UniProtKB/TrEMBL annotation:
It is an enzyme of class 4 (lyase). Substrate binds at residues 74-77, 96. GO terms for biological process: regulation of RNA metabolic process. It comes from Stenotrophomonas koreensis. It holds the Pfam family RraA-like. Belongs to the class II aldolase/RraA-like family. This is 4-hydroxy-4-methyl-2-oxoglutarate aldolase. InterPro entries: RraA, RraA/RraA-like, RraA/RraA-like_sf. Its cofactor is Mg(2+); a divalent metal cation. Catalyzes the aldol cleavage of 4-hydroxy-4-methyl-2-oxoglutarate (HMG) into 2 molecules of pyruvate. Also contains a secondary oxaloacetate (OAA) decarboxylase activity due to the common pyruvate enolate transition state formed following C-C bond cleavage in the retro-aldol and decarboxylation reactions. Homotrimer.
Length: 170
């Protein structure tokens, strides 16, 4: 399957692009899937809950408010995401256990790393509209991530892009 975020951005000029200094931490630097959103303010309780549910190739998009003082994903939650079939995690915040996460079959893009874990207070919201990096991200959209960045497409655009990438006709 062949696609790049620059090609997707060119083909779909109205596509949403999350322009932030993304760093890649997972074993897959290129990933895509249907979006599941979480707002997680210094608490990864909801991230952990979702990682322990079937992912079906989806991508968890986490808005940590750009917090660099806590990590919203570590090796245990990442391992759960892999075991449950998540394609990746995009975090507007930080990760930890970067050496372990790098060896996992999971795409992980985040702003940075921090060794400090979050408090577990059961806070956070799932399936909410997120806004960061100039992007509005809605649950159910599709997200494509590679070394060049993050592009969010609606269903018809994603269907066309994936069909083209596999050589199928739409």
């Amino acid at each position: 399957m062949s696609w790049t975020t620059p090609d997707l951005s060119d083909r779909f000029p109205q596509a949403t692009v999350a322009c932030l200094p993304w760093r890649h931490y997972g074993g897959h630097a290129r990933f895509h899937g249907r979006v599941v959103t979480v707002r997680a303010p210094a608490d990864n309780s909801r991230v952990r809950e979702l990682a322990n549910q079937p992912g079906h190739g989806r991508v968890l998009v986490v808005d940590g408010g750009g917090d660099t003082a806590h990590a919203l994903l570590g090796d245990l939650v990442a391992a759960a995401a892999v075991a449950n079939g998540w394609a990746g995690v995009v975090i507007h915040g930080c990760v930890r256990d970067v050496e372990a996460v790098a060896g996992m079959a999971l795409g992980v893009a985040a702003l940075g790393s921090c060794p400090r874990k979050t408090d577990k207070q059961g806070l956070g919201e799932v399936d909410v509209v997120l806004q960061f990096g100039g992007a509005r991200i809605v649950p159910g959209q599709w997200i494509f991530v590679d070394a060049s960045g993050v592009v969010v497409l609606d269903e018809p655009q994603a269907t066309a892009a994936l069909a083209e990438a596999t050589g199928a006709t739409v």
